[in-house]
From TrEMBL:
A GO-annotated cellular component: nucleus
Biological-process GO terms, alphabetical: proteolysis involved in protein catabolic process
Record keywords: Cytoplasm, Proteasome
Annotated protein name in UniProt: Proteasome subunit beta
Assembly, per entry: The 26S proteasome consists of a 20S proteasome core and two 19S regulatory subunits. The 20S proteasome core is composed of 28 subunits that are arranged in four stacked rings, resulting in a barrel-shaped structure. The two end rings are each formed by seven alpha subunits, and the two central rings are each formed by seven beta subunits. The catalytic chamber with the active sites is on the inside of the barrel.
Pfam family, any one: Proteasome
PANTHER family: METALLOPROTEASE TLDD, PROTEASOME SUBUNIT BETA TYPE-1
Classification lineage: Eukaryota, Metazoa, Ecdysozoa, Nematoda, Chromadorea
Organism: Globodera rostochiensis (Golden nematode worm)
Cellular localisation: Nucleus
Amino acid sequence: MDFYNFVGKSPIVQMAKFKETLDDSSAALAAMSPMIEQQRQWNPYTSQGGTAAALAGDDFVVVASDTRLTGPNEIEILSRNCEKTHILTNKIILNSCGFYGDVLQLKRLLKLRIDHYEFVYQHAMSLEQCSEMLARMLYSRRSFPYYTGAILCGIDSDGHGSIYGYDPIGCMERFPFNASGYGGKIVQTFFENQWTFSTVSPEERKKMPAPTLERALSVMRDAFRGLSERETTTGDSVKLYWAKAGEDQVHHQTFRLRGD
């Protein structure tokens, strides 16, 4: 409100000016009300982009995730080298997207319990046991869940590749493939078409290539290359891991994606 607009004016003009200034102030407050309301609200969860995916074969599993970490508005790139795939043992791999703080906390607790099990019982925890333990860990936090799309992968006790998918409160299901994160739906559709051939007729399916490890690696690379052209929070590079029955190590490879 400018004082000099009212000096030397008649009372009628002064009142008209005052009402005009008051209307302008009310309009400004109305425009700011959404911002004020947003500041009052607090959300403990923030999804930080990215995509994680896994493919299982008869005696192998292939796991991959991108390395881009984005902010809450999906336009800020916080990191270009963020690890979302975590090797827990030589047969168990955790792949997860969501809020990165919860991802790291879940990985830390899971690794701690696996190490404690091996110390107490003097043998390695199996993938099946770890999958049940993870489901109970997530369910125990159901009132304030970990904001993660966890995928537990590896080689089971029978030597088969296995993938377990979870929701934030611990509901678990075994899949031949799975994906989570912002690009999860796109990647799963691609896997249905190129890995399990669910979209073709049974006659055509017989002519499709066998689900070998080499083909799984090729399908995974193609999935992330195509996804990075369509999904902005997935990019920079991909960490690719695979484990095979009868081997005591997890193999690793990195390939670049677009960085914009």
